[in-house]
Design a protein that fits this description.
three-stranded antiparallel beta sheet; 18 strands
């Protein structure tokens, strides 16, 4: 459990808030994580920097550093900061622990050309900086499978889908009952960089960005030109939004606003970036996704600068936007079955975990392929962590180390 003031939570959000505390002519920076970081972001009057979707940068060679109040932070520095906040809020001291640290990792990292080796080096360095030993990396869907296996009363071959923020990961594992307990045999793994963040991207791109100047125009040498698309492509991605907050980008947007057909929209885009309103956008979009999981329509409401957005979104709208992503997920599962020399009827049960597993169209993919009677519900937000802890207690844990 994690304590923040009088609040005790069993889930820790991977977000950081850096607060600039003035001290006379100088200042210091206070770092908070999880729920405390969100509370500070929403209520603090101090200058701050809020960072989310940290893991999405792990395998990117393009991400070298970000600067926070003049200090350079590499990926491993951000990860160490988050782990240090986890230690503080959980009351756990890794120096008093002599066992192996088991850490989850996605099967496939986010990005068009993710570098797995780079990500693993960064993970190891981040853990070391935070005072942990080098972790044993285990695929996250394997952790979810271990958690689900405790329900089994007979031998079964299970497919687990773990839908995180940046990746969707899948594993097939055979569980057998023995006199010594449950025997587990890995059969296959697969994954892709499409999950909750990509679904958010689709909503932002279709609803919010057009209200902030996407598809509008500006004047240049007597001609009307389309607004540059790269700003909106970055704006709609959580892990790239903070990268827009550079002097060069802000100056370029300010110059575009001067000649824009609708300068109020561009001013609102600039204000959203400068004021770190990314979490407000995330919260509005997340609320819509949650509502659409159980209702035929939802209203997205948010005020950015002088632009008040209030648009109705139907389930049909949302499903049409994410259709290419659903196809990619379905193909990934199909390829995993082919590579494992298995047919859908060879799978005895399907366990879906993570926030996007609540989306009806995601569940339908698995119902259509395996049959609705094979789908099982569970603890969608804790199953990976619980399973990884169980692997940590396994005397033969090395066999689950990610390759």
């Amino acid at each position: 459990n994690f304590s923040t003031g009088d609040t005790v939570l069993d889930v820790y959000r991977s977000v950081l808030c850096f607060l600039k505390r003035e001290q006379g002519a100088s200042f210091n920076v206070e770092t908070t994580g999880g729920n405390e970081a969100i509370e500070n972001f929403l209520s603090s009057a101090d200058d701050l920097r809020f960072i989310q979707s940290i893991k999405s940068h792990a395998a990117s060679r393009l991400f070298e550093e970000t600067r926070v109040f003049g200090v350079s932070y590499r990926f491993e520095d951000l990860m160490a900061s988050l782990l240090s906040c986890v230690k503080k809020d959980s009351g756990f001291d890794p120096t008093s622990f002599s066992g192996t640290t088991v850490s989850g990792r996605p099967v496939a990292f986010v990005g068009s050309q993710p570098d797995d080796d780079l990500a693993m080096r960064r993970y190891a360095d981040g853990y070391k900086k935070a005072g942990f030993g080098e972790p044993m990396q285990v695929y996250e869907p394997v952790g979810a499978a271990f958690s689900y296996a405790q329900r089994l009363t007979e031998d079964a071959t299970i497919l687990v889908g773990d839908f995180g923020g940046g990746t969707s990961d899948f594993s097939i594992i055979r569980f057998e009952q023995t006199s010594d307990g449950i025997k587990s045999t890995p059969i296959g793994y697969s994954g892709l960089g499409i999950a909750g963040d990509r679904f958010d991207y689709r909503i932002i791109d279709a609803v919010i960005s057009p209200n902030l100047g996407k598809n509008s125009q500006y004047k240049s040498f007597g001609k009307l030109l389309d607004m540059p698309k790269q700003y909106y492509a970055q704006f709609a991605k959580w892990h790239q939004l903070s990268l827009l907050k550079t002097p060069e980008t802000i100056r370029a947007l300010e110059n575009l606003a001067k000649s824009a057909v609708n300068p109020t929209q561009i001013d609102a885009l600039i204000e959203t970036i400068v004021d770190d309103r990314g979490f407000d956008v995330y919260r509005a979009v997340s609320n819509v996704k949650t509502q659409l999981s159980s209702a035929p329509e939802a209203v997205l409401q948010i005020k950015l600068g002088d632009i008040a957005i209030e648009e109705n979104i139907t389930v049909g709208d949302f499903e049409s936007w994410i259709s290419p992503d659903l196809t990619a997920i379905d193909n990934c599962v199909g390829n995993l079955l082919d590579d494992s020399n298995m047919a859908p009827e060879d799978i005895d049960g399907v366990f879906l975990t993570g926030g996007s597993s609540f989306i009806p169209s995601v569940k339908r993919l698995f119902e259509n392929r395996f049959g609705g009677n094979k789908l099982a519900d569970g603890n969608q937000f804790q199953s990976v962590a619980i399973g990884l802890a169980m692997i940590g207690m396994d005397e033969n844990k090395e066999r689950w180390r990610a390759k």
